[in-house]
């Protein structure tokens, strides 16, 4: 299985946003959506600010494929649903640490959206 390089991980983790292009059921790409991304070890994670109502997330969950652009990195990715509570606890902390400067009105919905956690795996 492909892995992220250290350079890719660092560049994406330092970026405030990631552009996510998820795929519709028919395989056509949706428009890019800017979302927040966090790093935990050698993995990258995203969540939907709008929870399960987020259009990009619903498409991503259905296809499990997408394309990302962040920090000068362009990659096709597989999107893996995360249900492990320990990982989600670490992702909560990562969102609070990285994006806390934006305040609770933005960070709290991301922490509350644990059920939408997706791990980005390069393809």
Describe the structure.
- InterPro entries: Split_barrel_FMN-bd, UCP028498.
- This protein has a single domain, classed as Electron Transport, Fmn-binding Protein, Chain A (Pnp Oxidase, Chain A, Roll), CATH 2.30.110.
- The chain has helices spanning 6-14, 55-63, 85-99, 104-112; strands at residues 18-22, 33-35, 37-40, 43-46, 65-70, 73-81, 118-122.
- By secondary structure, the protein is α+β, with helices and mostly antiparallel strands.
- 27% of the residues are buried.
- The protein is built from four helices and seven strands, in the order αββββαββααβ.
Secondary-structure blueprint of this entry?
Elements: H1 6-14, E1 18-22, E2 33-35, E3 37-40, E4 43-46, H2 55-63, E5 65-70, E6 73-81, H3 85-99, H4 104-112, E7 118-122
Antiparallel strand pairs: 1-2, 1-5, 3-4, 4-7, 5-6, 6-7
Helix pairs in contact: 3-4
Organism: Streptomyces plumbiresistens
Protein name: DUF2255 family protein
What labels would you give this structure?
single chain, alpha+beta, 4 helices, 29% strand, Pnp Oxidase, Chain A, 123 residues
């Amino acid at each position: 299985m492909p892995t992220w390089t250290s350079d890719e991980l660092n560049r994406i983790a330092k970026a405030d946003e990631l552009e996510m292009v998820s795929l519709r059921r028919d395989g056509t790409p949706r428009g890019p959506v800017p979302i927040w991304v966090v790093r935990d070890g050698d993995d990258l994670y995203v969540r939907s600010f709008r929870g399960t109502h987020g259009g990009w997330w619903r498409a991503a969950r259905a296809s499990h494929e997408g394309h990302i652009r962040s920090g000068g990195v362009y990659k096709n990715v597989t999107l893996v649903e995360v249900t492990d509570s320990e990982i989600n606890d670490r992702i909560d902390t990562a969102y609070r640490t990285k994006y806390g400067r934006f305040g609770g009105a933005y960070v709290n919905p991301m922490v509350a959206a644990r059920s939408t956690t997706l791990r980005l795996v390069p393809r």
